[in-house]
Specification:
- β11 and β12 form a beta hairpin.
- The protein has 2 domains: 177 residues, FAD/NAD(P)-binding domain (3-Layer(bba) Sandwich), CATH 3.50.50.60; 167 residues, D-Amino Acid Oxidase, subunit A, domain 2 (D-Amino Acid Oxidase, Chain A, domain 2, 2-Layer Sandwich).
- The protein is of the alpha+beta class.
- α2 packs across α3 and α2 crosses α8.
- It contains 8 helices and 19 strands.
- The strands form 3 sheets. Strands 1, 2, 9, 10, 11, 12, 18 and 19 form an 8-stranded mixed β-sheet that branches.
- The structure holds flavin-adenine dinucleotide (FAD).
- Flavin-adenine dinucleotide binds next to α1, β3, α6, β13 and β17.
- Flavin-adenine dinucleotide (FAD) binds next to α1, β3, α6, β13 and β17.
Length: 401
């Protein structure tokens, strides 16, 4: 039974602030339920100042807790529903390797036991078998005989730029009102509704969902709330592969180096001008920034560090990279936030903690449940605003997941 809010004197049942991946999925989920919804975005749709642009994000079942592993099944299911509604593919399956060098900073036991407990198909491979199956790793020296890895065949890629645009397109097709270039200046809950003050005037909503990622506290602080967050500027690099034939989908997996520093990468994937390159990046390698005062120029040291690592991992022959930047918004425990404000239950907050795009379609559903006052169709206790893990100090090692 879908819960609805009375429209009453409000302009919309629900207002969603921020049209990145999470906000766009939330507007879509609400519109699909016939809810009157407005989506407000400060910049143009598809902008590159936040976290949901660029060509690829990893979607995987391998996670460090059974709770996350179970949620990944929902993540895939929700994206599959979007695919069938649009009759267009979103997920590309590539297979994935979580690479654990000896004494890795990230413990493989957590991943193996979580996958086993939930019954997700996976293998535990040694260096010899990795090099046999994916010859690119035989051209480097890091995947030696001591290397071990989890191979998860369901791992794949979701394109944040195209998937976010698709969610927006479907939302409009279901009746949603999207307003780009409309910064929200403040929100004022009271009397069972929320007045949303924007630079283009105010709208009254029965509830509001804040999907503002790096800018979240700008809206919550005037309400006396603050989520402890660290915003970092990360970068991803695209390396031309030249005449290498061993880096295409089917011959090369999505991979994650489960150590400190942690790196990750993709096989050749993306639109023209990108598909002849491989993408790679360092997880949590960037500086802490203010989202409104950050630069966009790549950090050459980070780029060189990554290029050196790639040479060691898959050998030489890669050309000079093209690099783009992006924002991580990290909670102290790197767990999500999906909850209502305790003193204003019609104000909902959603945060992907810099690993949320694979879950964007799922986030859309549970944030819509919360906004409509219903019971969310998932156990969100680990993502509560009052959990102790949010308040513990920031320590980079707890971000390594
Ligand atoms: C380099 C990089 C690699 C990543 N890799 C992965 C991966 O492999 N797998 C994965 O699952 N996740 C990954 N992530 C994380 C994932 O991309 C993010 O968790 C997700 O995109 C967050 O989406 P969002 O909608 O919350 O944030 P955003 O896309 O940043 O959207 C927030 C929006 O709110 C708008 N906004 C803010 N304040 C206001 C206001 N006052 N008024 C109006 N609009 C406002 C902003 O302009 C912005 O558009 C990665 C992120 C980065 C940066």
């Amino acid at each position: 039974m879908s819960v609805r809010r009375e429209l009453g004197n409000t302009d919309f049942e629900v207002g969603v602030i921020g049209l990145g991946g999470l906000g766009s999925a939330t507007v879509h989920a609400l519109a699909r339920r016939g809810v009157s919804v407005v989506g407000l975005e400060q910049f143009e749709l598809g902008h590159v100042r936040g976290a949901s642009h660029d060509h690829s994000r990893i979607i995987r079942r391998s996670y460090h807790t059974p709770h996350y592993v179970r949620l990944t099944a929902e993540a895939y299911r929700c994206w599959r529903d979007v695919e069938s509604e649009a009759d267009r593919p979103v997920i590309t399956i590539t297979g994935g390797l979580d690479l654990f060098p000896p004494a890795a900073a990230i413990d493989p036991a957590d991943y193996r036991s979580a996958l086993a407990e939930v019954g997700v198909e996976h293998e535990w491979l040694d260096g010899d078998e990795i090099r046999r199956r994916w010859p690119a790793f035989a051209r480097g020296h890091l995947v030696d005989d001591e290397m071990l890895a989890i191979h998860a065949p369901d791992t794949g890629i979701v394109p944040p730029d195209r998937a976010t645009a698709l969610l927006q397109e479907l939302a409009v097709a279901n009746g949603a009102d999207l307003r780009p270039l409309t910064p929200v200046l403040s929100i004022h809950p009271g009397g069972g509704e929320v007045e949303v003050v924007t630079a283009a005037g105010s709208v009254r909503c029965g509830a509001v969902v804040v999907c503002a990622d790096a800018w979240t506290n700008r809206l919550l602080a005037p309400l006396g709330h603050r989520v402890p967050l660290t915003v970092t500027r990360e970068q991803v690099s695209y390396f031309p592969v030249g005449n290498r034939q061993d880096l295409s989908i089917g011959r090369f997996p999505v991979w994650i180096w489960m150590d400190d520093p942690s790196f990750y990468g993709f096989p050749m994937y993306g639109p023209a001008g990108v598909v002849d390159r491989i993408k790679a990046s360092e997880d949590c390698g960037g500086p802490v920034v203010d989202p409104d005062a950050r630069g966009f120029d790549p950090d050459p040291e980070m780029e060189q560090r990554l290029a050196r690592f790639l040479n060691d991992l898959i050998g030489t022959g890669l050309g000079a990279p093209r690099t783009t930047t992006c924002l991580y918004t990290l909670t102290a425990d790197r767990d999500f936030v999906a909850d209502r404000l305790d003193d204003h239950p019609n104000v909902v907050v959603g945060l992907g903690a810099a690993h949320g795009f694979k879950f964007a379609a799922w986030f859309g559903r549970v944030l819509a449940d919360l906004a409509l006052g219903g019971e969310p169709g998932a156990d969100l206790a680990p993502f509560a605003l009052d959990r102790p893990g949010l308040e513990r100090g920031f320590d980079r090692s707890s971000w390594l997941v």
